[in-house]
Amino acid sequence: MSTFYKVLGVALLSVTTNNFVWFALTFWAYLSTRSVISTSTLAGVYLVMMMVSGLWFGSIVDHHKKKNALLGSSIASLLFFAAGLVLFETTPASAFASVASVRLWLFAVVLLGGAIVGTIYNIAIPTLVAFIVPEDQRDRANGLFGTVVGTAFGITSIFSGVTLAFGGMRLVLIIALVGTIVAIAALSLISVHEGTPAHAEPEEPKKRELDLKGTIAAVRNIPGLFALIFFTTFNNFLGGVFFALMDAYGLSMVSVQVWGFLWGFLSLGMILGGLYIARRGIGKNPLRTMFRVNIIMWTISIFFAIQPSIVLLAIGLFIWLFLFPYVEAIEQTIFQKVVPPERLGRVFGFAHSIEQSASPVTAFFIGPVAQLLFVPFMTTGRGVELIGHWFGTGVARGIALVFIAAGFTGLLVTMLARRSKAYRLLSARYLT
Known about the structure:
Structural class: mainly alpha
Oligomer: single chain
Number of strands: 0
CATH superfamily: MFS general substrate transporter like domains
Helix content: over 70%
Number of domains: 1
Distance between the termini: 26 Å
Largest sheet: none
Shape: globular
CATH class: Mainly Alpha
Strand content: under 5%
């Protein structure tokens, strides 16, 4: 466990640095263009890149030492961020002012590339847990990783907004370069003896590749595992709504500095949620816990935007973020129990790709839909007459209406899924 704690420390620095760039880029793009389409498109590009990379990253994790996979990831991030700084310094500021600017999107894609290669940590760390952490402590280890993600989220939320406000994108990129270099140096000094679990069987040489067909077969052979992946995929489909529009909604009520500090405070929810899991675990029946958590989260999603109140939004998001580590820890713990360790990285990568495939669809179309349908509905359309007297009117209320519709949909699907045969089968498999 001491080795795991050291790796978690490096993961905290690396994840913080990558999220720092991603958050700052999103804030900067919206403030530069003042277009909701810019944030939704950025979210869509980010999620598409995550979807495409998952299978490849999973294969890298399975076929290489986990430490080497993490080192390669950080080195690649360093190169992307350095290229981004060069692009920024050689491009006139006026070229970034329009959402139609080619240079804007070239710069964005380069920085997103640096953030995306860093997501290999999300596959390598849970896979490493199966190799170096005893089975009865894995849910708590997953909770600690959730705490790391939450802490990184909090640091990022505060300092990305503040850094952007007072130092601009140049300072953001310089800090990212320094942070990545320190992470590479620290990880190089850690000795990780991964070993091989007793029940793991070496793969045949011909299968030491991506082997998508074999990965699908492995998932199919575990009753209910596909259903779990598809349920998470649908949740991500709806989650893309919040991913694409939340910054625009928040920035319509407060400044970028306040929004950044608020997210820093809200991230305490993720940190506390992860620490609670690390102390108490996720229960004997993780799937039952998962459905209870989802019911609460989607109910909150209905109400946190019911009125134009930053306080109501903050309370709702805090509870939502407290519960979020459960979603990740439950899926990771189930995979670590039922998936053969020699294929665990690719199954994590496969699930990562499938689950992220829905969010880009939402993120790409929800910005234009919100801008062209919901916003007019709540500014000059029928919504003003029908519900405007109590719901409020304006651009932000149009976005709020999208959030509420997504919340109702997620709640309905969760109630239906918890009664399905597939989840009873997976629950029985886990408990055996």
